[in-house]
Structures are given as C-alpha cells and as structure tokens.
Amino acid sequence: MDAEHHEEDINKDNSHEQGGNTAKYIADSSVPGISKFLRMMGIDCACDCSYTDAYIIFIARSEDRIIITRSSKLHARLQSYENKKAKLERQLEKAKNTGDEEYIEIIQDELDEIKPLKYYWVESLGRENQILDVTGHFKIRYIPELLFSRCVKCNGKVRRVVNKNDIKDKVYELTLEKNDYFVQCEKCDNVYYGNEQGNAFQKKLWKSARDLCNRLSYEDTTSH
Asked: What are the coiled-coil residue ranges (predicted)?
C-alpha cells in the first residue's frame, strides 16, 4: 500500500483532537530536532529558523497547525492569548447576566476575532527526550510506509523519479550511474537517492532510521 492510502487509513484510527499522525505541526527554532524527526516519519511539520514568533502564530492559525516550542518568550505570548480569551469570556458571562445586549455584542465580536491556537510546551531536555515527549503527547505512531516520504529539508512531499536522467543536473554523475532509486521533493526539488533495497550503506541507514522511529514513536500499550 502506498503512502497516500496509509495517510487515509490512519486518519480513521489515529486522529486525535490535539494531534496524531494526520495533524499539521509547526516547530520553532528552539526544537529543530523535533521537526527533522517528524519529517523523517512522514509527518507534516513546518520549521524555519528565520520565522518570527508572530509569523509562527500566523501560520499556525492560517494553516491550522499545532505549535511546538520550548521558547519561554513564545510560550508567554501564547498564554497571553489564552488569558485574554478567558477574560473576555468572563466579561461576556457577566454581560449576559445583566442583559446588556449592546455590550454582549461588543464582547462577542472581540471573542470572534481571537482565532483558536493549539500549542504544546516542551518541558523536557535533550533531543530524544523531547521527541518522546511530543510523540507520546500527540500519539504519533511510526508508519513504516511513510518513512522518508517528506523532505527533511523543507517539509515538502517527495515523489519517485521515474526517469533518473530528469535529475542528472542535480546529482553527481557517479551517484546517477550507481543508483536507480531516486525521489525528489515537490517543493524545493531536493533529490534523495537509495532505499532499503540498496547497497550495504543504504540498508544500514534505513535500518538505523527504522530503529530510531520504533524507539521514539508512540506505542499504544493498551492494545496489547
């Protein structure tokens, strides 16, 4: 079964209100290792060290992404939105009790302008602990067929290169000659080569990636 059909299947049994394999994420520069790992597993995780906090919030809202951060500055900013919303909700409740329809309408309009934000504050230290923290919280499972289905550089989806001569200007001549399996990012055109049926080095690389994903992804122990 191909990666696309697997994404449809896991959407049925692995959806999660605050995450899961099919949710979209955005990580800031405080946790770059998390974004690279999620991309390797085929998870949609945007990340760019040049993004400001304001732009991260903008993307999260416009693309319905969950923010992952360890930045105390960004965390405080996200909490301020929650506090503002909670304050307005209390004011709205009081206004309803007094029956002030005009005031109710004003507060409701303000509340409607505050678009919801989903985020996760990473408390743990160390790359692997942080990854375990995130995959455990969002119940992100390892799906073998989705391994390396996204570009670890830009998060774009990759596709199989049918005719390797189409990418001859993007790889070394010797690499083109000695390999038959290539994929290319649909977004940045970056080319990757080799798979688990390749040479000894490629097999070792894929095995290491599989082992890492198995070790650091979520496992539902209640189903055993």
From this structure: 71-105
Provide DSSP, 60-105.
HHHTTEEEEE--HHHHHHHHHHHHHHHHHHHHHHHHHHHT-HHHHH
- The Cα 190–Cα 150 span in angstroms is 11
What is the pTM assigned to this prediction?
0.80
Q: How many domains would you assign to the chain? A: 2
**118 three-class SS:** strand
Per the DSSP assignment, residues forming a β-bridge with 27 are: 68
Flag whether 84 is in a domain: no
Tokens of 69: 């951060």
Looking at the structure, do residues 26 and 41 belong to the same domain, yes or no?
A: yes
Q: Which residue has the tokens 């060290």?
A: 49
Domain boundaries, position 179: 158-206
Element (H, E) at 137: helix 127-138
**Dihedral sign (CA 193, 194, 200, 205):** positive
Ordered per-residue pLDDT tens for the chain, 224 residues:
444 444 444 333 333 346 789 999 999 999 989 999 999 999 999 999 999 999 999 999 999 999 999 999 999 999 888 888 888 888 888 888 888 888 888 888 888 777 778 999 999 999 999 999 999 999 999 999 999 999 999 999 999 999 999 999 999 999 999 888 999 999 999 999 988 877 888 889 999 999 999 999 998 766 54
Half-sphere exposure (CA, 13 Å, Cβ side) for 124? Answer: 14
DSSP 166: G
